[in-house]
Prior knowledge:
four-stranded mixed beta sheet, alpha/beta, 13 helices, single chain, 2 domains
Amino acid sequence: MEIEWKYSKQTEINRLLFTANRIALSIYQKLGFLLSPKMMSSTQLLIVAFPEGAISAKSWKKLSEVELDIINPHLNIDQNILTEFHEIYSTLEIADTSDIAQLQKDWNEIEKRFTKTVSQVFPQLPFEKLVISPTLYGTWGSYCIKENAIYVTFRIDTPVNSIIDLFLLAVVQYLQLPESIKNDGVEIIRQNHWHQKQFVAEFLSKHTGFATLNPSYNSTLDSLTNPEIPKELIARSSAYFSQLGFPVKPCLKMQHKTALLHEEELTNLTTTQEKILLKLLGSVGEVTSFEILAELMWGNERLEKYSLTAMSKMIFQLRQKLREAGLQKEVIFTKRGQGYVLMQ
């Protein structure tokens, strides 16, 4: 497999066009990503980096009406928008050549092992080329398949190993792997399409030959469900989305002691799951302790039945039920050693 690196100011302009398009389509908001004018390494897997610029309301509207190509977004976009982006970001910051050279050097150290592992794990893949584009902007990484090549774009504040993760996501999409896989004998199902692909790719990263190439693997799904995010960062993200004209609207709410998702009553929850969700909705942004959760689950028998494992399983099932009902992002987060918190 031939491997090619591409980086220039034009690739960064293309990245901004693609990112702006996804903001306008509310994709990042639905998946629970946070928006920031710059990279933030402490929460790198959750951040969408998008620099400030006076993009017109007319351009934002047009961007919300199309779905741009990840590699060549300029090919199917209104020429006026393209001109506007070039003018706004004429002084756009791009990465130093020394930084790009270091990334390539880091990648070269694992490239031979990577290509060998690809041939061992996926001997029948038809791809002849992997095109790698580093970036300062957007999410931690994106990918697409074009003819006989896989294209990946990864943000430079993430480890170079993230190229492997993006490659695997592309392979999962190409192979259309099953919606469920077994982990230690337990069938795990991801109903949401994005979560499903991400989960299978992470499984391959951790349980095949690719694991030796990325021993310090960081899970995007774990980051989305178990983040340590300051409330002020969430507030700044919401304010930035609103500033751009795309306010983040709560998808879950409580009305007359009933849980609603997208204004529709949730009907697929058990009585206990509904009690837990209502408690979380009644204290958004605040931790619901394990003790309170135990009382909701077992009542007067909570001392005898108290089990963190059972609580974790209950929350896992609740998250799964919410995804089945159409929720596309994680809203119930684990506060290690304390309990759970609902944040939207």
